[in-house]
């Protein structure tokens, strides 16, 4: 449904009805999601995830999107930290888990840095000609990725 709604919203061509067609606009619309995510094992939902152990054995799987890296929350030596998974760097530290969810206690620079990183990644994919019709993100806990707090 999200893909059809995106076609209507942005006036992208409707998908072709010819069963021999392989290049319809709908087939070219992707999902913007998180790396290591998993949304189910049916044809549509499996395509909304990057290649992984869950879908590599499925012959009809087709990756349909772009996948963003995300920081994770974990406890290290009794302190709650936000870690950049790409670099392994600790980006920010907190005294309690509640502090992480407190907008007043978060560092504005960390937010701005992450926002810039996400916007640059999206721009790179848009500049390469990708279109996105859906955004799939886990709000707090990414279960399939190893029970990561995101």
UniProtKB/TrEMBL annotation:
Keyword Ligase set for record: no
GO cellular component, as recorded: mitochondrion
Top-level taxon in the UniProt lineage: Eukaryota
Record keyword Oxidoreductase present: no
SUPFAM superfamilies found in the cross-reference section: PLP-dependent transferases
A molecular function (GO) term: adenosylmethionine-8-amino-7-oxononanoate transaminase activity
Alphabetic keyword roster: Aminotransferase, Transferase
InterPro entries registered for this protein in UniProt: PyrdxlP-dep_Trfase, PyrdxlP-dep_Trfase_major
A single BP term in Gene Ontology: biotin biosynthetic process
Annotated Gene3D superfamilies: Type I PLP-dependent aspartate aminotransferase-like (Major domain)
Name under which the protein is recorded: Uncharacterized protein
Organism: Geotrichum candidum
Biological classification of the source: Eukaryota, Fungi, Dikarya, Ascomycota, Saccharomycotina
């Amino acid at each position: 449904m999200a893909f059809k709604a995106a076609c209507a919203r942005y006036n992208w061509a409707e998908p072709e009805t010819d069963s021999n067609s392989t290049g319809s606009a709908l087939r070219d619309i992707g999902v913007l999601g998180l790396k290591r995510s998993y949304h189910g094992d049916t044809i549509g939902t499996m395509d909304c995830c990057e290649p992984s152990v869950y879908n590599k054995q499925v012959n009809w799987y087709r990756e349909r999107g772009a996948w963003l890296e995300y920081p994770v929350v974990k406890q290290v030596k009794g302190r709650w930290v936000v870690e950049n998974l790409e670099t392994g760097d600790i980006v920010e530290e907190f005294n309690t888990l509640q502090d992480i969810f407190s907008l007043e206690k978060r560092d504005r620079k960390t937010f701005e840095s992450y926002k810039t990183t996400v916007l640059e990644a999206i721009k790179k994919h848009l500049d390469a000609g990708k279109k996105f019709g859906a955004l799939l993100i886990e709000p707090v806990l990414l279960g399939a990725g190893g029970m990561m707090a995101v």
